[in-house]
Amino acid sequence: MPSSTLDFSAVKTFFASLTLQRLVPALIICAVGFVAIKGFMKLFNRILARSKVDPTIHGFLRAAFRVLLTTVVVLMVVSSLGLDATSLIAVLSVASLAISLAVQGALSNIAGGLMILTTHPFRVGDWVEIAGIAGTVVEIGTSYTKLMTGDRKEIFVPNSEISASKIINYTMAGSRRVDITVSASYDDAVEDVKTALRKAVLLPQVQTEPAPFVAISGYGDSAIEYIVRVWTASDDYWDVYYGILENVKICFDEAGISMTYPHLNVHLDPPAPSGSR
After folding, report:
1. Are the CB atoms for 143 and 109 separated by under 8 Å?
2. In terms of Cα–Cα distance, which of 152, 154, 134, 153 is closest to 144?
3. Which of these, 39, 83, 87, 88, lies nearest to 65 by C-alpha position?
4. Which of 46, 83, 120, 133 sits in a 20 to 30 Å window from 58, CA-based?
C-alpha cells in the first residue's frame, strides 16, 4: 500500500515539525483569535439587528461569518507554525473518511436549510406545524430550525426533516378561520339558537368580511349540532376561539337554550291484560 505508507510518513513529518518555539506563538494566536471572533460576532449581531435584512436568513449569515472568521484564525495558526502545506493536506486526508461519515447528516441539514431559504415556506415569526409540531418560528439555522411552542418550549427540528415533511403555515395568509361546533336541544327553536350564536361571535377581533357563518351541521342522538365559522387575524386566533366558547354558554343561558348531554329515553308499555295473547 504505497499511498498509505506515504500518508503515514507525511503525518510523521507534520508532527515532527512542531517545536515549542513554534507552538507557543501559535497557541497565543489561537487564543487571541477566538476571543476576537466573539467580539466580531457581537458586532455582527448588532449590525444584523439594525439592518433591513430578512430575519429569516440571520442564522445563516451568522454561521457563515463565524466559519469565515474561524478559517482566517486557522490559517494564521498554520502560518505561524511554518507547516508544509503538503504535510497538512496529508494529515487531513487521513481523517477525511471519518469526517465525511460524521458530517453526512449535517450536510443534509444544510441542504434542507438552503431549500427552506429558497422556497420560503415560512419566515421567522410565523406560526407553523411541521411533522406534528406546532409553534412559532424563532430562528432558521444552518442545521436546525428553532420553534417556540405555545407553552414556551424550544424545539429544534432538523432542516432535513423539515424539507421532507408537510408544512402547515397558519400565518402566511394573514388571517385564519375559527371553526366551533356546539349542540343544542331538539326542543329549542333553530332560529333562537342561531340568534344566540350570532350574538356570541360579536368580538372586536372577529372580521366582518367574510361574514360570520352559523348553520346546522348535523343531527345527533340527543341534540342538534351547529357549526360556527368566523375569520380573524392569525395572531388573534386563540383569543377569538376561547372568547366565543365562553360567550356561547352566556348567550345560551340568557336565551334559555339547553346545551344537552348524551341521554337515553326509556318508554315502558303497560302490561297486557291477564289472559290476553
Report:
1. yes
2. 154
3. 39
4. 133
**Which residue from 103, 163, 105, 153 is spatially nearest to 133, judged by alpha carbons?**
153
Distance from the Cα of residue 251 to its chain's centroid:
37
Set of cell numbers at residue 70: 474561524
What is the C-alpha to C-alpha distance for residues 103 and 179, in angstroms, rounded to an integer? 45
Cα–Cα distances (Å) from 219 to 154, 186, 226, 227, in that order, read 43, 9, 9, 12
How confident is the model over 18-28, as a mean pLDDT? Answer: 73
Rounded to whole angstroms, the Cα distance separating 187 from 44 reads 68
CB 201 within 8 A of CB 242: no
What 18-26 contacts at long range (C-beta under 8 Å, 24+ apart), as own/partner pairs, is: 18/81, 22/80, 22/81, 22/82, 23/81, 25/80, 26/77, 26/80, 26/81
Q: Which residue has the higher pLDDT, 131 or 60?
A: 131
Contact in structure between 23 and 14 (CB atoms under 8 Å): no
Q: What local confidence, expressed as pLDDT, does residue 95 receive?
A: 54
Q: Are 188 and 253 in contact (CB under 8 A)?
A: no
Distance separating alpha carbons of residues 193 and 257, to the nearest angstrom = 7
Burial class for 63, CB neighbours closer than 10 Å (0-12, 13-18, 19+): middle
Residue 6 has what pLDDT? 44
pLDDT of 15 strictly over 70: no
Residue 129's H or E segment, with its range, is: strand 127-130
